[in-house]
Amino acid sequence: MIPLTLLDVHLSAPYPLDFGANPGSSIRGALYEALRAMYDTGTAVRSREDVEENPVAWLLRLEDDETSGGKDVPRPLAIRPPLTPAACEMSFGVSLYGRGQEQLPLVLSALSAMQQIGVGRGRNRFKLARIDALDPLTYQPTPLLDGKGQHLNDLRPAPGAEAYTRLAEMLRPDRVTVEFLTPTRIVEREKLAHAPLFKPWFQRLLERTRMISEVYTDAPVWVPFKELLACAEAITLIEDRTRWVEMWSGSRRDGEMRPTSGFAGEATYTGDLSPLLPWLVLGQALQVGKNAVKGCGWYRLRYDWR
Q1: Where exactly are the structural domains of the chain?
Q2: Please, is 156 exposed, middle or buried when counting C-beta atoms within 10 Å of its C-beta (0-12, 13-18, 19+)?
Q3: What is the pLDDT of residue 233?
Q4: CB-CB contact of 262 with 47 (8 Å)
Q5: What pLDDT is attached to residue 251?
Q6: Are 168 and 273 in contact (CB under 8 A)?
Q7: N or C, fewer C-beta in 10 Å, the chain?
Q8: CA distance linking residue 97 with residue 224, whole number of Å
Q9: By the 8 A CB rule, do 208 and 74 touch?
Q10: Pairing mode of beta strands 248-250, 186-188
């Protein structure tokens, strides 16, 4: 499977932190601003191999000429925004995929700089309480840095494909509930999907998995599209408790507002899920659909054990 690192960033402030109407976009913007101020060389990066030319561009604005002219390149970084209302203590997540993990020191220093830049409405300033590394299968935290930036523990090796398979084999194979924690924006045949029908978003997840592994790892993951999509075709949505969430995100590059809307909430599916479950487990860390770098498409499985 794709090597990955999940950071859980804990914040504290003497007043409630307000991340605005689009928290993921606000966090991505502040992180980009901090990275750009410290490490951006101003050089455009048009190859997945040119990370040393400009690590900031490689992380957040790569235009890989080998991949659809650079138009459809997923980023090796995604945001998991806060899910709670404004509070004095909050947390958000940053995920790094494949060779994106090599930029962890830059990201950690940028997170520290964000304390002074601020984030959200009014550029709220905060203090880093600690940064944890999460296990992508169990979500158990390992303290990585304390509030003073002191190193506490080393990163644990990312789980391999066998670990995802073992976990999937412990789950109920005929029913699963998925909680779409942030707006999930799925385009199917050039049309926006307003309902969480299984096959469209699962196909986008497989495509994202293949693309991230192709661009950012030395050993691309083999995705058996034909077999998996045939299974996905037979999965039925039996309970739809999602809602449509309207959101917009501004672009500093062209000054335009772009939609990041999508469905959020719970959906329950039935069918033969056995061959699909390892990919669904992985997708919790990868996120799915458009704008993952701005916090969209983050979901969790409700583990229903055999």
Answers
A1: 4-146, 161-302
A2: exposed
A3: 97
A4: no
A5: 64
A6: no
A7: C
A8: 21
A9: yes
A10: unpaired
Instruction: Give exposure, 16-42, as e/b (b: 16+ Cβ within 10 Å).
Output: ebbbbebbbbbbbbbbbbbbbeebbee
Encoded tokens for 102: 């090599």
User: What is the enclosing helix (H) or strand (E) of 142?
Assistant: strand 141-146
131: left (phi over 0), alpha (psi -120 to 50) or beta: beta
| DSSP codes of every residue in 147-197 | TT--B--PPPPPP-HHHHHHHHHTB-SSEEEEEEEEEE-EEETTEEE-S--
Predicted local confidence at residue 258, as pLDDT: 84
Q: Which residues of the chain have pLDDT under 70?
A: 68-71, 251-255
Instruction: Please indicate whether the domains covering 4-146 and 161-302 agree at the CATH topology level.
Output: yes
As assigned by CATH, the class of the 161-302 domain is: alpha beta
Q: Please state the length of the chain.
A: 306
CA distance 142 to 134: 6
Q: SS3 for 266-292, per residue?
A: EEEEECCCCCCHHHHHHHHHHCCCCCH
> Residue 262's pLDDT is what?
96
Distant-in-sequence, close-in-space partners of 139: CB < 8 Å, separation ≥ 6: none
Question: Given this structure, which CATH class describes domain 4-146?
Answer: alpha beta
C-alpha distances in angstroms, 302 versus 44, 115, 213, 234, 277?
42, 34, 26, 20, 12
pLDDT score for 124: 84
